């Protein structure tokens, strides 16, 4: 019997997180080498452009990589505008804080964002919500994602307040691919533990009133 697809395979989360870590690594390299916001921003943009070129060459969808490049450009503009190197990571700090609130609220109102994302990827729209067991599994697994964003905010916020741009860049790299990989593995484990034996899996929700 074929093994069910994992969340990592469905969402390509590790690849996206790895791509996102390169601009932060570039900023760190430029900052450590020259202690200059301009050098850090230039290195980050070069790294982001490199990721975009690589992904487009491999035939990946341009929208995702271009959104990532746009995020790096906005972060660069903020840092150059304020003259503070740590502000390159302000957008990341705010987005992770907003993610904590959004994911928590989605669980409370019984629209867990993990289910929304996976349902969209699988072309199910809202059909997964009519399966009570799948709804429960997505709700429990979404708490793992909340914890992921809480960890980032807990690390980023004091470093940002202290103006530690280099430490922020290093933390951004460490809390990208490794943390996302752990989050995907943990949330997939929660889903598997929550779904009862004999459930057909994520691709085949049972149509029952939620």
TrEMBL record:
It comes from the Bacteria. It holds the Pfam family DUF3159. Keywords: Membrane, Transmembrane, Transmembrane helix. The keyword Transmembrane helix applies. InterPro entries: UCP010219. The chain crosses the membrane at residues 28-52, 64-80, 100-122, 143-163, 169-191. Signal peptide: none annotated. This is DUF3159 domain-containing protein. The lineage of its organism: Bacteria, Bacillati, Actinomycetota, Actinomycetes, Micromonosporales.
């Amino acid at each position: 019997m074929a093994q069910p697809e994992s969340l990592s395979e469905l969402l390509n989360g590790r690849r996206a997180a790895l791509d996102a870590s390169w601009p932060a690594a570039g900023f760190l390299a430029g900052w450590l080498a020259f202690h200059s916001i301009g050098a850090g921003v230039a290195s980050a943009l070069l790294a982001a452009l490199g990721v975009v070129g690589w992904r487009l060459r491999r035939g990946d969808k341009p929208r995702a990589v271009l959104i990532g490049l746009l995020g790096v450009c906005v972060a660069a503009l903020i840092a150059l505008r304020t003259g503070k190197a740590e502000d390159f990571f302000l957008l990341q700090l705010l987005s992770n804080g907003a993610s904590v609130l959004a994911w928590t609220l989605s669980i409370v109102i019984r629209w867990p964002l993990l289910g929304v994302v996976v349902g969209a990827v699988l072309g199910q729209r809202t059909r997964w919500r009519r399966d009570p067991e799948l709804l429960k599994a997505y709700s429990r697994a979404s708490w793992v994602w909340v914890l992921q964003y809480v960890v980032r905010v807990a690390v980023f916020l004091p470093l940002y307040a202290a103006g530690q741009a280099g430490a922020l860049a290093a933390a951004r790299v460490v809390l990208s691919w490794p943390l996302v990989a752990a989050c995907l593995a943990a949330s997939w484990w929660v889903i598997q533990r929550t779904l009862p034996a004999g459930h057909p899996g994520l691709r085949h929700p049972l149509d029952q009133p939620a």
